[in-house]
């Protein structure tokens, strides 16, 4: 059963399995485990970016296509919904029209880009996508009467997805895990009080509904992509990644496969963009189309581990957590280092980006294959140490004549 | 001589600004093994790549089973029944042996009987079935490369220097495999430097020099005529053996 759901592509490392379980359970029960609007937003962003990064990994990790237009498709999805709701009112019909319209626009644009990859290869293709993405960004900024320009647009979501909607009469129980852990660490003798402090009431509203729609979308998209990369189609992609000429010489029209991947990845990014607009309820060029965001997606993919798909889950979770909570961590450390010259300055909350960079360099140094890739390598090495293979391919005796 | 399965007339090809092939005329008879000999840089590999459409042809025609395939895209040529084993072997190293073969079976699931035949020819492939192909040794990779070309019945095999850097025992295994393919009436065009290997297998032979075929005939004729060997290949006194 599980093997069918995961298309027989298991995490293949105990540490990774544990890490994934923690992430998946946290996302699935998120609103009941983490109190506060900030935690809620972070959870939502993780779900959105799991989709975006998984789709990007399909291109980058499985097919070695470097594209910088991924945020453009993300933005098309977000603006599609925002503009449709703006023009047609906050109904589900409008949301649907927005999503379908955005998917259609993305399809056409990605088809053109995919066909372009027939003529323009590797770094040149990447540069073309960059140019297209920048053109799109400036277009959105210029057309302020329909896109809101730099100011962006508020997204008036349907009532059922907004804070005013209450599907349940009573509030539900929640337990704030960070408070609980902190309490257990600092005053373990006082369990009763710690427990009391950690419990909170979840007033389940439309935003939670939207969150669970996102969780369902992310799950569906991830499992679909996992199935895809483990299908005959996915094998051809990996063959293209390793040696495109060879794949052609075996009889595969690689341009068809490449174009299909570019389109598919664009459509998933569009869908994720629509989800982003509905949970964030505000879109502007900076949070959907910015080049910085593109670099972040690339980093999430690399940190997680390219060509693993599971890397999308790990990468986006670690990255978004760092992005949102590194400042807090620095602030917390800062209270102990206050007064020490230089150190005080270096550990200031304003310098979080510096530490973010340091973390990235360290992660690339210690996890050259990404977190997922490296964990798998370590697991394999451990297995081989425990029971060395009877005769590795290299150990095959060669009869001499 | 049997009717030709492949015919090159006046084939020219460039790599960047260099003219590599200056009008290659070559006939590969159906059901025979043709050896393409020649010094390094004579244009043997480029000839194979040009037949496959991997190097753009700038003049002349390639006719395969009566059809002009000169301008066909590579995948179409492959699906028409020509398999290519390049010198680099082009193994997908991160994929398993199984996945490499599954990919090569382009028209559907692998045929069990044929797979068994391949396992009999190359037992290591069975042994390392689920191992990444990148971990195979050089000889095993060559076995996989050839297995990949014959996992489905093909009419013509283009094989580029299969014996390069291999131990004698493995070269013998490869020769046996080619013998069996010959029995199955598969036409083969083999680029080779190893004259002993070529002499054992080849029925027809063509010798290239400086981007053109300078001699074509039967292998028996060339094998007997040492003067001709000396003249064409610089072989003599058992060199290259």
Automatic annotation (TrEMBL), chain A:
Subcellular location, record wording: Cell inner membrane
The reply on keyword Transmembrane is: yes
Main location class: membrane
User: Does GTP-binding appear among the keywords?
Assistant: no
Q: Name one GO molecular function term.
A: branched-chain amino acid transmembrane transporter activity
Coiled-coil ranges (or none): none
* Transmembrane stretches, start-end: 16-34, 40-58, 91-116, 123-144, 209-229, 255-279, 291-322, 329-347, 353-378
Q: Name the InterPro entries on file.
A: ABC_transp_permease, LivM-like
Please provide one cellular component term from the Gene Ontology annotations of this protein: plasma membrane
Which superkingdom is the protein from? Bacteria
Query: Topology relative to the membrane, per the entry?
Result: Multi-pass membrane protein
Annotated signal sequence range: none
Q: Which UniProt keywords apply?
A: Cell membrane, Membrane, Transmembrane, Transmembrane helix
Name the record gives this protein: Branched-chain amino acid transport system permease protein
From TrEMBL, chain B:
Keywords attached to this entry: Amino-acid transport, ATP-binding, Nucleotide-binding, Transport
**Domain ABC transporter span(s) in chain numbering:** 6-235
Answer yes or no on keyword Disulfide bond. no
A GO BP entry is: L-amino acid transport
The record's section on Pfam families has: ABC_tran
Q: Which organism is it from?
A: Marinobacter segnicrescens
- Extract the signal peptide range: none
Enumerate the InterPro entries for this protein.
AAA+_ATPase (IPR003593), ABC_transporter-like_ATP-bd (IPR003439), ABC_transporter-like_CS (IPR017871), BCAA_Transport_ATP-bd_LivF (IPR052156), P-loop_NTPase (IPR027417)
One GO molecular function term?
branched-chain amino acid transmembrane transporter activity
The UniProt entry's sequence similarity note says: Belongs to the ABC transporter superfamily.
Protein name (database record): Branched-chain amino acid transport system ATP-binding protein
């Amino acid at each position: 059963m599980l093997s069918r759901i995961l298309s027989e592509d298991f995490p293949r490392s105990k540490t990774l399995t544990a890490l994934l379980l923690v992430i998946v359970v946290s996302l699935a029960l998120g609103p009941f485990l983490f109190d506060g609007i900030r935690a809620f937003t972070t959870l939502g962003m993780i779900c959105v970016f799991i989709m975006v990064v998984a789709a990007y990994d399909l291109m980058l990790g499985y097919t070695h296509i470097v594209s910088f237009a991924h945020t453009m498709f993300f933005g098309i999805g977000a603006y599609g919904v925002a503009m449709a709701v703006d023009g047609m009112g906050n109904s589900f019909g409008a949301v649907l029209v927005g999503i379908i319209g955005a998917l259609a626009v993305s399809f056409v644009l990605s088809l053109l880009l995919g066909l372009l990859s027939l003529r323009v290869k590797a770094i040149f293709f990447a540069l073309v996508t960059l140019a297209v993405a920048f053109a799109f960004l400036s277009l959105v900024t210029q057309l302020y009467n329909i896109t809101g320009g730099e100011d962006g647009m508020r997204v008036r979501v349907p009532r059922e997805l907004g804070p005013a909607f209450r599907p349940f009469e009573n509030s539900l129980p929640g337990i704030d895990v960070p408070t609980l852990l902190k309490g257990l660490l600092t005053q373990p003798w006082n369990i009763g009080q710690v427990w009391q402090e950690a419990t909170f009431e979840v007033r389940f509203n439309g935003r939670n509904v939207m969150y669970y729609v996102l969780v369902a979308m992310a799950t569906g998209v991830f499992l679909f992509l996992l199935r895809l990369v483990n299908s005959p189609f996915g094998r051809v992609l990996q063959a293209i990644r390793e040696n495109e000429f060879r794949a052609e010489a075996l009889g595969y029209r690689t341009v068809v496969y490449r174009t299909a991947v570019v389109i598919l990845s664009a459509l998933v990014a569009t869908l994720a963009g629509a989800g982003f607009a509905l949970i964030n309820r505000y879109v502007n060029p900076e949070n959907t189309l910015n080049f910085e965001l593109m670099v972040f997606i690339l980093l999430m993919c690399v940190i997680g581990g390219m060509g693993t798909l599971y890397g999308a889950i790990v990468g986006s979770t670690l990255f978004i957590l760092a992005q949102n909570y590194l400042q807090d961590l620095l602030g917390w450390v800062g209270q102990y280092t206050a007064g020490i010259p230089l150190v005080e300055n270096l550990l200031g909350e304003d310098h979080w980006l510096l530490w973010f960079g340091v973390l990235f360099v360290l992660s690339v140094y210690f996890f050259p294959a990404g977190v997922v890739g490296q964990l798998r390598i370590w697991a394999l090495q451990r297995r081989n140490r425990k029971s060395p293979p009877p005769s590795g391919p290299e150990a095959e005796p060669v009869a001499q004549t | 001589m049997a009717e030709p399965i492949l015919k090159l007339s006046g084939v020219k090809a460039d790599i960047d600004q260099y003219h590599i092939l200056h009008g290659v005329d070559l006939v590969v008879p159906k059901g025979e093994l043709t050896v393409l000999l020649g010094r390094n840089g004579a244009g043997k590999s480029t000839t194979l790549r040009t037949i496959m459409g991997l190097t753009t042809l700038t003049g002349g025609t390639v006719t395969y089973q009566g059809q002009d395939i000169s301008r066909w895209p590579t995948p179409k040529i492959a699906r028409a029944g020509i398999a290519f084993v390049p010198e680099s072997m082009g193994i997908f190293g991160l994929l398993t042996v199984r996945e490499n073969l599954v990919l090569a079976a382009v028209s559907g699931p692998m045929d069990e009987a044929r797979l068994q035949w391949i396992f009999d020819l190359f037992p290591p492939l069975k042994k390392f079935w689920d191992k990444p192909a990148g971990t195979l040794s050089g000889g095993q990779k060559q076995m996989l490369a050839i297995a990949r070309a014959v996992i489905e019945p093909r009419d013509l095999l283009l094989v580029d220097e299969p014996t390069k850097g291999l131990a004698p025992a493995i070269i013998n295994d490869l020769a046996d495999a080619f013998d069996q393919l010959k029995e199955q009436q598969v036409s083969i065009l083999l680029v080779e430097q190893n004259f002993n290997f070529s002499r054992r297998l080849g029925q027809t032979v063509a010798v290239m020099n400086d981007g053109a075929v300078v001699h074509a005939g039967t292998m028996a004729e060339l094998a007997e005529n040492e003067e001709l060997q000396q003249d064409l290949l610089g072989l003599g006194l058992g060199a290259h053996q």
